[in-house]
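URGENT: need a sanity check before tomorrow's submission.

F., can you look over the Enoyl-CoA hydratase record below? I want to be sure the sequence and structure line up before it goes out.
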Amino acid sequence: MTQRLAMPDLLENSADGVLTFTFNRAERRNALSPAMRERLLMALVEERNTLRHRALVLTGSGGSFCSGADLDPAVILSRRSTIEGTMKTGINQIVALLREIPVPVIAAVDGAAAGAGVGLALAADFMIVSDRAEFQLAFARIGASPDAGVIAQLVHKIGAARASTLAMLGGSLKADEAERLGLAHLLTTPGQLSEETSKLAARLAQGPTISYGNTKRLVNAMLPAADPRYLALEAECQARAFASHDFEEGVTAFSEKRKAVFQGR
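Structure tokens as predicted:
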């Protein structure tokens, strides 16, 4: 009997100056596991220190990009007392590094991007989306607080009113609307997503890398999501949300596939 070896949660491929990260938990819509977060953070730190590649790509396997935090109650409720610290040393650092590393970053989004997955996509310099991509801000549905730089990015790119509506009412953006609003660089089909991403990545990897890095630095100077103080505030707000009764009810209701009964505490 042949035993199949487990694939890592994060796949990495280096070719022609491009480093591609593939979120690889298709059975969980590529929800962020601890191993995935830790390896991505480690790889980005290494990339910042060595600058071995001239373009980075983020994508997902199995028809999803990334659904954010793993909402398995046993997993997420166990993080209630540590969430502020783990955010500051985890997802906050990942978002900051995606903005800080002075090479272009592309997010290739197919299917669902939810929660922190939206933040990872928005942290990229370019977003290429398939026509079945959908961006879901479901934080409020479980009583959580937005994280991964999502609010800062959306306020900057589409305005406070629309960002508040999406975050508070748990709305979503379809691929064509993301393109219309200027969030997406290119809208394509699922079958063409990989090819279009490879074409753009190759072009960027052969371009004026120092110029690109300077452009990122200037953009970051005008972008609140790149400010460590904003990311620290996100962690503080999330800690308050995780400590609430509403959060426990929201996660439980999600797992039981019923409507949450929030009490405002």
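My own read: The mean pLDDT is 94. The chain has one domain: 10-190+213-256. If you see anything odd, call me.
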